[in-house]
Structure prediction request, 978 residues.
Amino acid sequence: MHHSAKQKLPAKYAVRVVGVSQARWARQKLCLQKDREQARTVIVPVLRQYSSLRHLQRDLLKYPGPNYGIPSRGIGMIVARVLRGALKIRYLLLGGSLAGGSALAKTYEKWKEALPDTKFLEGILPSQEDLDSIRSSLITYRDKIKDAVPAFTLDPKLKELGESHYDQLVVWFKERLDDAVRAAEEEKSENSVVFPDDFSADLKQHAISFSAMGSAAEREREKAETIREKYEGLQEELMQVQLKYQKEVERLEKENKELRKSLMLKAGDIVARKKIKKSLIDMYSEVLDELCDYDSSYDTQDHLPRVVVVGDQSSGKTSVLEMVAQARIFPRGAGEMMTRAPVMVTLSEGPYHIASFKDSTREFDLTKESELAELRKEVELRMRNSVRSGRTVSHEVISMTVKGPGLQRMVLVDLPGIISTVTTDMATDTKEAIRSISQQYMSNPNAIILCIQDGSVDAERSNVTDLVSQMDPQGKRTIFVLTKVDLAEENLTNPDRIRKILSGKLFPMRAIGYFAVVTGRGNKDDSIQAIKDYEESFFRSSRIFKGGVINSHQCTTRNLSFAVSECFWKMVRDTVEQQADAFKATRFNLETEWKNNFPRTRELDRDELFEKARGDILDEVVNLSQVSPKQWEDALAKKLWDKMVTYIFENIYLPAAQTENSGTFNTTADIKLKQWADQMLPKKCVEVGWVTLEDEFRTFMERAKNSKDHDTIFDNLKACVVDEAMRRHEWEDKAADVLRVIQLNALEDRSVSDKQQWDAACKFLEDSVKEKLESTESTLREMVGPSIKEQWMYWCYPTEDQKNRAAVKAELEKLLLSDYAHKNTLSYDEVTMVRKNSQSHGAEVDNEFIRETWHPVYRRHFLRRALAKAYGCRKAFYAYHQGLEGELGVECNDVVLFWRIQQMIKITANALRQQVMNREARRLEKEIKEVLEEYGCDREKKEQLLTGRRVMLAEELKRVRQIQEKLEEFIHSLNAEK
Prediction:
């Protein structure tokens, strides 16, 4: 077919020919019309009819002429803008109505029935399948046209129309495509575009239809905007209602607190006359306290629920706990780690707002700032005392109870904050120790993890979330709390980040609940009520709350405490009976082991064993009063002589005996005795008295060990108590002064009054000299080695030194035989003579070696002379009494000296016996009681002194029985409350 050049192509084919690239130009032309949406009415239905460029080429066969009066530019732009407009309408309608309706239904489920019904849109808007089909077709056209425009060619089959017409058509297409591309790049203003005059009536009809469709879409968009406005208005109204409801609830709670307080106070007289019934939370707290004492390392067999508060250091853990407890009970420091040990806080209801520790009867009034300050100091002191041996944190649990009107009943454990770096004032293992403590508590499968995250810092800096996700990967027992939301709102320009945190989409950890709280403005002096008011005012005016970022039930510490308490009691009710059965099985196993290993022994725990040992020790102290005075004096006299015998012989008797006559002997002895009595003797006697008291006491204890009823488990404890009491004991100061006076008087008396005393003095001298002589003989035997007899019988031989000693000893004995009254020293000539004589027998010795051997040889010689003199003095009493010693040739000064010493020992022993029986034994008993009291309060000391499987098994049995009984009592009360 051939057509003239002036024949015009119908409008719809004109649009198809120009293609998508000139749709933009057409849209610019249409903008001069009153409704620019008419262009969409023309373009969209036409584009729907083609799935490829090949179909477009097929229609071109009908009108191949080179000039059709179609505008040369701008039509490509109309297609692109129509596409954009259509997609924009789609997202406005769907995103504004459907997504907004979905959020409204999810967040305010109770209010969704009040919203207008949007089902009428289903008949107007295209279905989802049609929209997806249109979208995919348009994307396909965009890609194909983008790729085809630079190398657009016509189908070679068009050559059948004629070579000249085909060439003209190719030229025409290239011109139109170039114009469309330039028009798309230039982006001329819409006001400068004119609608072409050669558009057909068909195109205008389509424009009118498209305009009608655009008007309908505009109306739907206006309806969506109306729905959005209603949604925002309902949200604002809901927030105001919730705030009003919250204020009303708080007012009612205050009234309820006052009424409950009045009722409790009025019922005080009745309660005082009856047995006080413990609350459920108090009973449960006692069970947990028993468990802490039973196993301070927190064994995993303890699966009873607790609320474990964990978080990074300075994340606000303690502040959250204080808001729940309604009192500022914990110490705080600027950036310093204050929580150094687990703090178990039991919250319960009571008429007064008070706090107390488990091991103390004092109650702190939390309504008074002065007592609050004292409570914080006590908590800090206990934390520092729990840290020993250079550690920074401790496993020891500090248990306290907080009571007050309206408090939620639960048990919380505040743990040290997770740290990233160890500072110089911390132990090197602090970081690992804190993680270990946190893991121990969180590993309890029934522990509720209250994960505290600081909202004022970047979420990527959090350490606790990774730890919590490891311990509770499913998040079935984790409650997430975002603190310092007010600072987070100031720092974050994108509230969507907070929404992601509180919806569980930012952190890898999971939780059963997410909460946002504000715990103050950073001022440690703010009261709890001031912090609550600030928190309420913040959430009332917060843009993250108004904008729907967080829901009303996710904010404020009040809602948090309700949620935690509810979760805690649900966990308790679900698991407590299983734990009671577990402890029942443990008790059965322990009782079976005890019957098999200790069938005839009572089950005494460490405290009971200590009390039994206390009674035995005090019985032994009482037995000291049964010792007779004679026994005390004999023991004291023996101890006194053993203590002073060496000094008497070496410093008094030997120097006096070396004098030339009896007068000089007595003078020397008197001087030596007086010096001794003034300086050393009284103190030495006091020491002897104390040693004798200790020996007698230990003798009674040794006798007790040999009895049939003796239990060896007490031996270490008894010995340690006695040693400690003896170490602390000091004899009275005036005792030494009293002894000095009586001893001086006794030593000054030189008159032996009767024959009996004289015989006793002679015997005392003989016994003392014999004892000393035996000691000297033993010393000489060791110096010279075995005798000839011993060498033959026992095959033992002397050393070279002993041979030399024997040679020197023989020479010295010859010297003493030649001079029976030899003095106690050797002259130089005598030493030289002994050395030369020894050398002649093959003993090479020096002068010092000879003098060393001389001392024991001469002492033996002297003691033999003294013993012979003592024998001669037995019958010399009458000569002494008549003063005829010199005339008879008998010198008995030795007997008189030892009589004086003997009398002094008797008088001293009697005085010491009186001090022991009248005062020192009682003082010892008092000191032993003090030591027992100290050990009784020192658990570590008792564990150190009372050990063994028997003790450990009895301890476990006692604890498990107590825990089981308390658990059963708690379960009974819990079921009764249901």
Summary: The radius of gyration is 55 Å.
